[in-house]
C-alpha cells in the first residue's frame, strides 16, 4: 500500500503467471489523518474506474473506490508494504465519470479528503458489506421491491397517465405544469419508480423546491421508493 497520484494503463508481465495489476484506490481517510486518501493496492487483473472494492487499511478492512490503474508498481514500495484488494463488489456497476468528477470537485471546494467525500456520499449500508453479503442482500430485496412499490401506488388519473406517457417517450427535458394538488409529485414518483424497476444501475435526483416541503416529500419517497433507497444513515 502506497500513496500514488499518477493514473495509466497496466501492461502484462509476460511470464505466463496471472498478471498483478496495481490500482489507485480511494479510501475513507480524514484530511487531517496524515494518511493519503488515494492508496495503491494489487489485484489479479484491471478493474474499471469507479468500481467498489474492499481493501485492508491498517488492521481494518474498508470500502474503497477504484480511481485508476497504474502502469508499474509504486516507486519506493517495500515488498512488505504491498497489500491486495480483498474483494470486488461487482454486483454493483462502477460509479460513472461525472459522479467522480463531482465528488473530486466537492473535496477540493470544501478542503476535505477525496475519500471522506466519495465514500461518505455512498449509502451507509455498503460500508460493512463484502461482495458475498452484498449479492445476497440484492437477491433478497430485488423481487420484493417492485411488488411493495406497486402496492403503495394509487391509480393514476387520465391526466397523470398522459403525462407519464409523454415522459416515457421524451428525449429532451420536460417541464410539467399543474396547479397545487393536481398530482405532479405522483407523476415524478411513478417516473422514478419505472426507471428504477427497468434499470438496476439507474439513479434519480429529486430537487425540493421549498425547504419546508422536505419532510413531506422525503416521507413519500421512502414510502414509495424505500426498497431502492436502502437503510438511512
| Distance, first to last CA | 29 Å
Summarize model confidence as the mean pLDDT: 80
Oligomer: single chain
The assigned structural class equals: alpha+beta
Radius of gyration: 22 Å
Number of separate strands: 5
Shape: elongated
Explained architecture:
This protein has a five-stranded antiparallel beta sheet with strand order 2-1-4-3-5. The chain is elongated, with a radius of gyration of 22 Å. Helices cover 36% and strands 13% of the residues. The protein has 233 residues and is α+β, with helices and mostly antiparallel strands.
Q: Which secondary structure elements does this structure contain, and how are they paired or packed?
A:
Layout: E1 21-26, E2 38-43, E3 52-57, E4 60-70, E5 87-88, H1 97-109, H2 114-120, H3 131-152, H4 158-169, H5 184-198, H6 214-229
Antiparallel strand pairs: 1-2, 1-4, 3-4, 3-5
Helix pairs in contact: 1-2, 3-6, 4-5, 5-6
Question: What are the defining features of this structure?
Answer:
single chain; 233 residues; alpha+beta; 5-stranded antiparallel beta sheet; 6 helices; 5 strands; 13% strand; elongated; disordered N terminus
Short summary of the structure?
It contains 6 helices and 5 strands.
Amino acid at each position: 500500500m502506497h500513496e500514488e497520484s499518477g493514473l495509466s494503463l497496466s501492461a502484462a508481465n509476460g511470464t505466463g503467471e496471472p498478471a498483478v495489476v496495481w490500482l489507485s484506490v480511494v479510501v475513507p481517510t480524514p484530511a487531517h489523518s496524515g494518511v493519503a486518501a488515494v492508496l495503491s493496492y494489487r489485484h489479479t487483473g484491471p478493474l474499471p474506474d469507479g468500481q467498489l472494492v474492499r481493501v485492508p487499511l491498517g488492521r481494518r478492512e474498508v470500502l474503497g473506490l477504484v480511481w485508476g490503474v497504474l502502469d508499474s508498481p509504486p516507486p519506493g514500495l517495500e515488498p512488505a508494504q504491498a497489500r491486495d484488494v480483498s474483494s470486488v463488489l461487482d454486483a454493483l456497476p462502477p460509479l460513472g465519470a461525472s459522479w467522480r468528477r463531482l465528488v473530486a470537485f466537492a473535496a477540493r471546494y470544501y478542503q476535505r479528503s477525496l475519500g471522506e467525500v466519495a465514500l461518505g456520499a455512498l449509502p451507509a449500508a455498503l460500508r460493512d458489506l463484502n461482495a458475498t453479503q452484498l449479492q445476497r442482500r440484492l437477491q433478497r430485496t430485488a423481487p420484493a421491491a417492485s411488488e411493495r412499490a406497486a402496492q403503495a401506488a394509487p391509480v393514476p388519473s387520465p391526466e397523470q397517465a398522459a403525462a407519464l406517457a409523454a415522459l416515457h417517450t421524451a428525449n429532451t427535458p420536460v417541464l410539467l405544469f399543474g396547479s397545487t394538488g393536481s398530482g405532479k409529485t405522483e407523476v415524478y414518483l411513478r417516473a422514478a419508480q419505472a426507471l428504477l424497476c427497468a434499470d438496476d444501475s439507474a439513479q434519480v435526483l429529486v430537487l425540493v423546491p421549498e425547504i419546508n416541503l422536505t419532510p413531506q416529500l422525503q416521507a413519500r419517497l421512502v414510502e414509495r421508493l424505500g426498497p431502492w433507497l436502502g437503510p438511512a444513515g
